[in-house]
Design a protein that fits this description.
Layout: E1 2-3, H1 13-24, H2 27-40, H3 44-68, H4 75-82, H5 85-117, H6 123-139, H7 142-167, H8 183-194, H9 202-206, H10 214-243, H11 246-250, H12 255-261, H13 266-300, E2 311-312, H14 319-332, H15 338-366, H16 380-393, H17 398-419
Antiparallel strand pairs: 1-2
Helix pairs in contact: 1-7, 1-10, 1-13, 2-5, 2-8, 3-8, 3-10, 3-15, 3-16, 4-5, 4-15, 5-6, 5-13, 5-14, 5-15, 5-17, 6-13, 6-14, 7-10, 7-13, 10-12, 12-13, 13-14, 15-16, 15-17
Length: about 425
């Protein structure tokens, strides 16, 4: 069925940027926005800027590392080569765990919008079906996945722009009167959840082995994807909280559709709901792409079972990792709720980003005459990245600390047991 080989470089700058935007603009703005608004109120736009700033530090470190180490695996591969195999194993397992949980959250968000349009379908069944359907699409090959994702990204950006253009003329200024109901700490808590939304640009680095001219394309794609997404998030959040009372948005699993409903126009509501479906499908697609490639990279390095590094002889995809991660994601949708998944994912990814910034610091020490993309204001940026990640971690609920600590402990023990003679 397969053999262990290198993956082909098929992604250009547009494809890579589109995968980043596809991964970022989705569950965060269309689903997790409601949770963040519950903490920050209309000041969620400040939360978005704070989370975007933290994400920028991470994006710069990703850009430098991705340009210098253009291999499959992203954060995992950087930690493996720059720090140690143990750090790589911890980072890789934590990333796989976080992104699998995130995929379950995206599946649930997709199902919430679908059931909003077609209420006779069971929510959990829709979520599982979506995860399995996109697993099949991933099996068909990177070219097919990238083409589908490019179309989905264009559609969802156009629909978000439509929502902003229509909604901005119907904003009720009174909805901004209680701008930050829980003060600055509420804004920080909102940022901790919004950070969940900005995780997608790392998906580009995870596909490093499939990007053409990676030394130039990877950093450009990461930074363009993040900048575009932050702008769209802020203007969409501003319009949504202006259209609808933040307390109503906070209680909704489909907050943008809830805001669109306030316009009184069913066509606007239906269009936005369709856009949310497109957006969450795109995020789920890129989520599975990233998951399968990190597992593939770990298997190539011998840190996961070697058969997971096999590539299908006809489809050219790491089919075993795609099937396993897709199945796990589908199962998780039965056991988790949206708030839990968002908190656990944010905390786990913040932890991997601390390892990422440490890898960026080590890169300059190991390769002092680096010829690829260089982070400006080094080493200030990675240090600020580590500090800001720690601050956001303290804004998240206690259960995210407990679950992520348990995962780190378990994978550390697993690593030590595997190394015993």
């Amino acid at each position: 069925m397969g053999k262990t080989v290198e993956l082909k470089r098929t992604l250009n700058l547009f494809d890579a940027t589109s995968i980043g935007i596809g991964a970022i603009i989705g569950a965060g703005i269309f689903v997790v926005l409601g949770i963040a608004v519950g903490y920050a109120g209309p000041a969620v736009i400040v939360s978005m800027i704070i989370a975007g700033t933290v994400a920028l530090f991470t994006a710069l470190s990703f850009s430098e590392l991705g340009s210098a180490i253009p291999k499959e695996g992203g954060t995992y591969q950087f930690a493996y080569e720059m720090i140690s195999p143990f750090a790589g194993f911890i980072s890789g397992c934590l990333w796989l765990f976080a992104q699998t949980v995130a995929g379950a959250a995206v599946s649930l968000g997709l199902a919430s919008y679908f059931v909003g349009l077609f209420p006779f379908f069971p929510l959990k069944i829709v979520a599982v079906s979506a995860a399995l359907a996109l697993t099949v699409l991933n099996l068909m090959g990177m070219k097919h996945s990238a083409r589908v994702n490019n179309v989905l990204v264009v559609i969802k950006i156009l629909i978000l722009c439509f929502f902003v253009a229509v909604g901005v003329f119907q904003v009720n200024p009174q909805n901004y009167s209680n701008f930050a109901p829980n003060g600055f700490f509420g804004i920080l808590q909102g940022a901790g959840f919004v950070f969940f939304a900005y995780l997608g640009f790392g998906r580009i680095a995870a596909l490093g082995e499939e990007v053409k001219n990676p030394k130039r394309t990877l950093p450009l794609a990461i930074l363009i994807a993040l900048a575009t997404s932050v702008i769209l998030y802020v203007v969409t959040g501003l319009v949504a909280t202006g259209l609808q009372d933040y307390r109503i948005l906070a209680g909704s699993g489909s907050p943008i559709a809830e805001a669109a409903r306030a316009t009184g126009s069913f066509p606007v509501f239906a269009t936005v709901s369709f856009g949310a479906l497109v957006a969450t499908v795109s995020v789920l697609l890129t989520n599975l792409l990233g998951l399968s490639r990190v597992a593939f990279a770990m298997a190539k390095n011998g840190q996961l079972p070697r058969p997971l590094a096999k590539i299908h002889s006809k489809l050219g995809t790491p089919y075993l990792t795609i099937l396993i991660t897709g199945a796990l994601m589908a199962v998780l949708t039965f056991f988790l709720d949206l708030r839990q998944t968002a908190a656990i994912t944010s905390f786990s990814m913040l932890t991997t980003h601390i390892i990422l910034h440490s890898s960026a610091i080590r890169l300059r020490k190991k390769i002092p005459n680096l010829k690829t993309f260089k982070v400006p204001l080094y080493p200030l940026v990675p240090v600020l990245g580590i500090s800001s990640c720690v601050i956001l971690m303290f804004s998240l609920p206690i259960e995210s600390w407990i679950v992520s600590t348990a995962v780190i402990t378990a994978v550390s023990l697993l690593y030590l047991l595997r190394r015993r003679p």
